[in-house]
Amino acid sequence: KSANPQWREQFDFHYFSDRKDMLDIEVWRKDNKKHEELLGTCQVDITALPAKQTNCLELPLEKQPGSLLMLIAVAPCTGVSISDLCVCPLGDPSERQQISHRYCIKNSFRDMKDIGFLQVKVLKAVDLLAADFSGKSDPFCVLELGNDSLQTHTVYKNLNPEWNKVFTFPIKDIHDVLEVTVFDEDGDKPPDFLGKVAIPLLSV
Predict the structure, then answer these.
(1) Sheet holding 117-124: strands in order across?
(2) N or C: lower Cβ tally within 10 Å for the chain?
(3) Tally of domains within the chain
(4) Does residue 86 sit in the same domain as residue 147?
(5) Are residues 109 and 166 in the same domain?
């Protein structure tokens, strides 16, 4: 019930060199759970923004009234990685030793924001739902922790996909929940939901 909403939320997008350089933003209006209406879109050219500083942007919505006020910072990616099983961060003994030193009791108050990090190995899925007419699916896996999100590649035509990827997240809140969702890639259409698990960090 507002024409001037304030969200005040922060999202971290992990920008890798092989990704698109444009950040696409959509604003939606929700009447109820079933009806949604697109209020406008805008784009930000990430490559045009100065690095290592916070940029205050007022972005007019395309072909619609209104604008978005955003703070966008492009900074080096720390604590986040996607790798194969053979080169995962905790697999290197020297790196494991550095991590143990970094989070030992003696250093626990050195950086209060550095709670730690979570390493997740996504190996495979078994007996997934067949979402295509061919009796197969094109599954990929999305991992979400707080407002951080990373995903695997798609394994096509397979109900027992193997991804064998290692994901590393920085932890910002020890009460966060790791959500792992499997989707079926469906071309230009929104992906189909195949299943989900939720793992509270406090249970790890």
Answers:
(1) 81-84, 162-170, 117-124
(2) N
(3) 2
(4) yes
(5) yes
